[in-house]
Write a structure and sequence with these properties.
single chain, mainly alpha, three-stranded antiparallel β-sheet, 7 helices, about 45% helix
Length: about 150
């Protein structure tokens, strides 16, 4: 049976994203990283980030294609608002006031995106209910990733 606890033996910690970083600082650094990627010339990297901004209604007046044309004008505040909304806050200002009091596991989705769980086997599920049913039999550490859920097996 796999453990259902946080996998403490992560090896793939990226520079600047160590375990001592508070949640708000982690989100700021992650937001800066997303901003650099969104502004880059690589369409296959920029478009998923732009879709996230549009889906969180940070720029409700723009479609993804319109935002793509204007991506050089993106600012860090756009990414911070996107991240705040993705984790359930109405805006970055509300998030930054409360996020440091929340468990670090709230940001595991972003750690997963950074490859910090790459040493572990993963199983994907369409939603939390299916994942929890599977977890009761097999264990694993669950991370919500949008509407989907990934089980980290260690």
């Amino acid at each position: 049976m796999w453990s259902s606890h946080y996998p403490h033996s992560m090896h793939g910690v990226m520079a600047g994203f160590g375990p001592a970083l508070c949640n708000s600082d982690f989100l700021r650094r992650y937001g800066k990283r997303l901003l650099r990627t969104a502004r880059s010339g690589r369409n296959y990297e920029a478009l998923p980030i732009l879709r996230r901004i549009v889906s969180m209604s940070v720029t409700p007046e723009l479609s993804v294609s319109e935002l793509f044309a204007l991506r050089e004008s993106l600012q860090l505040k756009h990414l911070l608002h996107t991240l705040a909304r993705e984790i359930g806050f109405s805006c970055w200002e509300a998030c930054v006031r409360q996020i440091d009091a929340r468990p670090a596991s709230l940001l595991d989705r972003y750690r997963f995106e950074l490859g910090q769980f790459c040493d572990f086997q993963t199983n994907w599920f369409p939603d939390m209910e299916v994942a929890q049913h599977w977890q009761r039999q097999h264990g694993g550490y669950l991370i919500a990733f949008g509407r989907q859920v990934v089980a980290i097996l260690h």
